[in-house]
Amino acid sequence: MAPTKGQQELVYSVTTKGRLSEPAEFENIILRANGDGSLLRLKDVARVELAAKDYSFSGKYNGRPATLMGIFLQPGANQLEVGEAVRTRLKELEGRFPQGFTYAIPFDTTMFVEVSIREVVITLLEAMLLVFLVVFIFLQSWRATLIPFAAVPVSLIGTFAGLFLLGYSINTLTLFGMVLAIGIVVDDAIVVLENVERIMHEEQLEPRDAAVKAMREVTSPIIAIVLVLCAVFIPIAFLGGLTGELYRQFAVTISIAVVISGLVALTLTPALCAIVLKKKEHSQNRVFGWFNRGFARVTDRYESGVAWMIRRGGVALLLFAGMVALTGYLWQITPGSLVPDEDQGWYFAPVILPDGASLQRTDRMVEEVTAAIRSNPFNEHVMAFTGFDFAGGFVFRENAATIFVTQKHWDERPMPVGALVGEFYGKTGHLKEGLAIAFPPPAIFGLGTAGGFEFYIQNRGEGGPKRLYEVTQQFIGAASQSPKLGMVNTFWRANVPQLYVDVDREKAKSLGVPLDDIFSTLAATLGSYYVNDFNKYGRTWQVLMSAEPEQRGRPEDAGSVYVRSTKGDMIPLRSLARIEYTSGPGTMTRFNNLPAVQVLGGGKPGVSSGDAIAEVERIAREVLPPEFSLDWSGASYQEKKSGGTSVLVLALGALMVFLILAAQYEKWSLPLSVLLALPFGTFGALAAVWLRGLTNDVYFQIGLVTLLGLAAKNAILIVEYAVLKYEEGLSASAAAVEAARLRFRPILMTSLAFILGVLPLAFSSGAGAGARISAGTGVMGGMLAATFLAIFFVPTFFKLLTDRHLTEKRSSDEIKREAETARNVHHRGVPTPHHAPHGAGDE
Q1: Is the pLDDT of residue 172 over 80?
Q2: pTM for the model
Q3: What number of other Cβ atoms are within 10 A of residue 55's Cβ?
Q4: N or C: which end of the chain has fewer CB atoms below 10 A?
Q5: What is the pLDDT of residues 776-801, one digit of tens each?
Q6: CA–CA gap between residue 597 and residue 301 (Å, rounded)
């Protein structure tokens, strides 16, 4: 039954005053009604205003007051899309800003990504142009040159499709892989095309017949090349950790491109050769005639050099052993690092004043530092967070500030960020009020706070903050004496000025004053106290209470605060507590669940991060007591963790090459002749980075993995043909010489195409240039060595492993004569056994 009486015709909603929303409404809150009828309102004892929630922090942009906001990505979000959406939304909101307000986007990490991708795309186009020129110079026909270039768009489009299906994004790493893949994807097509051209020229066959015959000869080596390259890259895609993720981006990209290029070379390329090529002599261009005559002489000299090396197997082995030893030495002396430093277009500058300095003092020094920064026109945006300690652990401290400085676009400034950081020290070194230092950002955003190294000193024993501070200062003092380290410091202090309130708990209890009331009164008077909430502008805000500044400006003011007892008496705090000056840590950090202090620093100019880490660990062993330890964090931790990854990757790659070739040749010995070519690439890569003063970083190591496959590719081309010629009846020496002669042009074409393809990488500039230079230099140096050194040794290795004799008694001319005689017989139309499968007789 309804709770009503009789018939009800109307229903009303009952409302009343809810949350207060205006300062005047709070002013009229009644605190007390007196006996005479008078009222004590809040405005009689307090000042009520609509103001900021917190005054321990202030933000400025280019020296002017500003509200600083940060926008961060959700996991899996597209950075460029989010950046564009933010810019579009702010443009829409600008029309609703109050008069005199505007906005700026001074810190935009998407700009670095966009410029990096743009630079890689430019490098991609430059690489394609250089590859095109190499192919045209060697083949001297526009028709022939277009055939391998048909493989490039097909392979790259297929690679993008594969990355999309596997859930990968287009980023600087996958685009690096694309640049490396350009030289690789045209290799297979060049091998097919060159062989068709050679057969058409030497045997006067029609393009279709030449293509059919050429495919009988090159199908096996192309399959072997594709399998070897995939065998090198696919296993490293399963490595874990940060370095594993970096490897994976390259490995997946190149593996997809290689597989597609192999399919193109076995299907599309021979079809295009049969359709596009014409049976006619090359035009007698004077430049081409000079090139052809010169190349013929070089080929003859190369053939003689191979024969000379084959006759002196012992000398070849000694030279090879010396090269391997030199490679090991270069590996030892090449400094290591995780990734190269990058000019990301910004740096940050922590400002630290003496402990206990007020926000006003900090802000005055920030203004001086900002003026010094803005005196250089290449520094475009300066954002100052006064009261925020970014480097010291993302904490708010009134004696600290963090300044973010972003530069003009890379195209508009000749000074890199490193030079601007050095200039910062020169312009702020005279400031006496506090310490102003600058750091570039970490090479991989999110790995640590700053560039350089980052670690924690941990206390595993007793002693508390005081002992931790003493040991930390001893360590920093020792590090400052090292010739390899610079700017080693910590922003943590154990002696921050403090006031200690010693409450007489027994007296408070006897007077009936609850301890909670004492502490909440102190908090409300000296700090701020949360009361409740109010509504305004469609949102909920906090009501905060604090004493007037003049009533809490001195330490003794804390004793003037009164606390109400349970009997209603007002008791002054000075009668219940003793207030004294003391000092202690402002914050305490725990790292791996141990009390710890964060220390930042870096190597001096010319000192790699790997050498700096080794120097820090040496000092730690000498200085730290037994109950203290050192543990790395950020990029330094990842670099330590990845220390043995490169050796594992190279060993795994070499093993996979050997196993694939052993299955291909159905022998254990012949794959060794290919495997022994791999150290040449490593030697060239290490020599190149050593000569340019670079480091052994992740990008260089990715290049080394690429070199394993490419060096094996050149060796496979020679060994495959040597096996064919040996099965035709030539001696091992003559077969090796003839295979070297036949494969010299395609090896030079493919290798030079790849070398010139990565040349723009090795000499990059601008955003992201550090990674491109590291990868490009190593790969280019390695391919130079694999091309111009290994091609003399691989035929020798084949001969040694085939007939097991160190020397050849015949002269070089006799070996060449045997190969030439067999070649002439073959060109007169004698059936060739290698048209049938291995081991079959003559047709």
Answers
A1: no
A2: 0.72
A3: 13
A4: N
A5: 888 889 989 888 888 888 888 888 88
A6: 66
